[in-house]
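Notebook p. 47: complex prediction with FNR.
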Amino acid sequence: MPLSIREFEALARDRLPADVYDFVAGGAEDEVTLRANESAFGRLRLLPRVLRGPATRELGVSLLGMDATMPVLIAPTAFHRLAHPEGEKLTARAAAAAGAIMIVSMGSTVAIEDIADAGGQSLALWFQLYVQPDWAVTEALVRRAERAGCRALVVTVDLTVFGRRERDHRNGFHDLPEGLHCENLRGIAGERGVRQIESTPELSWEHIDRLRATTALPIVLKGLMHPLDAVMAVGHGVSGVIVSNHGGRQLDTAMATIDALPDVAEAVNGRIPVLLDGGVRRGTDVVKALALGASAVAVGRPVIWGLAVAGAAGVTQVLELLRDETDRALGLCGCACLHEVTRDLVQAAPC
Ligand code: FNR
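Predicted complex, structure tokens below:
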């Protein structure tokens, strides 16, 4: 088994068809933001405390009233069957085994009911939603997620226009291959909706209010970067936000998420949990995000690399690597639990 997420990516690259690898790995336009998400973590340095000696660390976290054994969630990524024939079923099994929360993409290639079955009772599933041009479709998706037992609705707000991913254009990778579909839309949307992801270009706070009136599920907004939007989110009664730039796949040259996090966390001021995704590849990245105000992080591509390399066992290994690395980094920073990870443990590297 690979010893790091970077090794997982290298192996996945060897195994996946080149156009699928590019679809997963790629970002928008010049991929400035894609690279920045990872490199910004590299510009931060940890400043550890010593002589506080925690013999063991507690990595558990409670989010929206749900307990997870680690502060790393599975970010919603579409089309897992591109990486493995059993797709999201295996991801769910691995998440359940790790005690991690899985955010299922609206564009999953296995239906949400089957994902819930595969994960079993113990798995906390959150459902990611793109608000659809047709509200009846949006509402039907929400009901489907509720019936399947999903425990939160993650509304992605950074895809009102599709980012231009030039690798996909070069490779002619526009449609799902024959036999793969967005299964959650089957029976809900027309043929087009089952073949490709749609999202309303008119998305506004009114949609968020309407969703709150539609469902009792807690709503988490994914794709916020600006502190003023985070303040608006609190005002509109959402239960959490995920600082995200869609893994650099939408607005190129957007800030790295770890650089945007401190101002968002300050604006939210503990009123709701702030999560982050984008470029998390090591346990030290997790600790840096916690220090800068995140309650937890999520990982997108690493999960797909794990799936491509070794199915459920690969995803489990990716999660366990992150758990193990986070545990070690916490210990070396003198922290016994996540609450002890304070702002002073991170500094910008001198130029
Ligand atoms: C995504 N992402 C995404 N986000 C979302 O809200 N719904 C989706 O269906 C998808 N699909 C998707 C597919 C692929 C192949 C990738 C790489 C990403 C974005 C995802 O949730 C997350 O924001 C980023 O992947 C986080 O960055 P890292 O961890 O991949 O660097």
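Notes: DSSP finds 13 helices and twelve strands in the chain. The CA atoms of residues 51 and 341 lie 15 Å apart.
Next step: compare against the earlier run before touching the bench.
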